[in-house]
TrEMBL record:
The keyword Cell inner membrane does not apply. It comes from Psilocybe cyanescens. SUPFAM superfamilies: P-loop containing nucleoside triphosphate hydrolases (SSF52540). It catalyses: GTP + H2O = GDP + phosphate + H(+). This is GTP-binding protein rhb1. The lineage of its organism: Eukaryota, Fungi, Dikarya, Basidiomycota, Agaricomycotina.
């Protein structure tokens, strides 16, 4: 049974540069989309989300784009409950980065699994698609996580991303635990 206290959930959004991480977060938080591109350094947003009748106080960290050489630092690992790993359906390279980023987090945290959802962004650009849905489905099965395709531009499946992330967090959360636990990389 839930208590009246809001459950806090910290979610990090990671992926290659320019895949649409900020656009996804902005569409979710502010309900708008911008065509122009401004590289992100890092921003945190807060929003309460009701999932399965429970209100969650979500803190969403929009990160700078990663490449294969970017280290995963403690700020993207310690105290994070769940991950949104974003690639663009128009970029095979950005899809390949998902496994790399995932493996880096898992290594950093010293765990075998992390709660995450893989997001194929820019689904409105299907004419330029480089990543088949079957590929992400296969990867998600291997990793053991959720996946979804979205368009921040057309506001398709944006809210669902964060619901799926909460779903994965709750799925991996041990019973009776409300704070991040060792499986989600909380170390001192
Ligand atoms: N067509 C289309 N374009 C999008 C979509 N989402 C983002 N874009 C565009 O893609 C470009 C990059 O988007 P951002 O949201 O800034 O990407 P980012 O991943 O935050 O980029 P970094 O800050 O470099 O990591 C921008 O020009 C956006 O307008 C989408 O759903 N559809």
């Amino acid at each position: 049974m839930s208590t009246n206290a809001l459950k806090k959930r910290k979610i990090a959004v990671l992926g290659s540069r320019s895949v649409g991480k900020s656009s996804l977060v902005k569409q979710f938080i502010e309900n708008h989309f911008q065509d122009s591109y401004y590289p992100t350094i890092e921003s945190t947003f807060a929003k309460s989300v009701v999932y399965k009748g429970v209100e969650y106080d979500c803190h969403i960290i929009d990160t700078a784009g990663q490449d294969e050489y970017s280290p995963i630092n403690s700020q993207y690992a310690i105290g994070i409950h769940g991950y949104v790993l974003v690639y663009s359906i128009t970029s095979r390279n950005s899809f390949n980065m998902i496994q790399i980023v995932h493996d880096k987090i898992v290594d950093f945290c010293g765990v075998s699994k992390i709660p995450c959802v893989i997001v194929g962004s820019k689904s409105d650009l299907s004419m330029s698609r480089q990543v088949d849905s079957k590929d992400v489905e296969t990867l998600a099965k291997e990793i053991g996580c959720a996946w979804i395709e979205t368009s921040a531009k057309n506001n398709i499946n944006v809210g669902k991303v964060f619901e799926l992330c909460l779903q994965e967090i709750e799925r991996m959360q041990a019973p009776n635990q409300t704070e991040p636990q060792s499986k989600t990389c909380v170390v001192m």
